[in-house]
Amino acid sequence: MPRLTDPAPRPSPGPVVALDIGGTKIAGALVDGEGRVLARSRRPTPAREDGETVMKAVEAVLGELAASPLWEAAGAVGIGSAGPVDASRGTVSPVNVPGWRDFPLVERVHRATGGRPVTLVGDGVAMTAAEHWLGAARGHDNALCLVVSTGVGGGLVLGGRLHPGPTGNAGHLGHISVDLDGEPCACGGRGCVERLAGGPHIARRALENGWRPGPDGDASAAAVAAAARAGDPVAVASFERAAQALAAGIAATAALVEVDIAVVGGGVAGAGEVLFGPLRRSLRSYATLSFVRNLTVVPAATGTDAGLLGAAAAAGWASSGPDS
């Protein structure tokens, strides 16, 4: 595995095809070795439909990219997918896409892209690769990076190297249980970080406790964040609960593997200090051991393109060979 402290991945000549697949959207791009997005496409994820319908959305994104004059120069494909994934088998089983269970995504994308080599990583691992290559974790040899969106994913850099684990799921903090008597999670567990900190659950909790959307009817986590910034106590409390869950998961991970920075991205992180303020306060209550007390929590720097950039980086490193 290449060291992520290299200044950039070394992809094969020309751009790579990048796919970022989540419970809300399927994004695709052609990305060059400097991290520039040269062409892009996007479709909503038909998450409640059958597996073939979801795959058709992926193929539609690839079809739009194939219309670019740069398509023929793209030599490899990288996929960052909501998890869990099984990189060793090339399959995905996203918790929030029930139609995909052990879905052979690598094989299907390989066929859809004319036989190009395909590298699969979890969305948290992809975001981690992007943040360590171009973002807030650059220069850190031991880092935890989180994607807090519809779900909660994560990835690790340990000793200067991406650490995806045998199946590509290492660092998947969203399904650490932080509430032993908590609500059942879609993964089959109980009291998971995702069940408390995922965007839909932030909104659900606010609604259950009396918060009401404005005249536009927007009941998303972003709307709850806006209400929290305006001082709505129920909205504030919902974000504080999410922050507490994230802090517990981050502190547990830091105690286990001694990371010195946690980078938080994804749509929910767009709430800004509504999330990061209580997250830092809660972390002081959980990260109390001497070797985790100085853990830093910062927003991600690669923005909404983190998944695409990380998928591109994964494809680049894979195509250039180990330790190149």
Automatic annotation (TrEMBL):
Alphabetical list of Gene3D superfamilies matching this protein: 3.30.420.40
Record family assignment: Belongs to the ROK (NagC/XylR) family.
Lineage of origin: Bacteria, Bacillati, Actinomycetota, Actinomycetes, Kitasatosporales
Protein name (Swiss-Prot/TrEMBL): Glucokinase
InterPro entries linked to this entry: ATPase_NBD, ROK, ROK_cs
PROSITE patterns, sorted: ROK
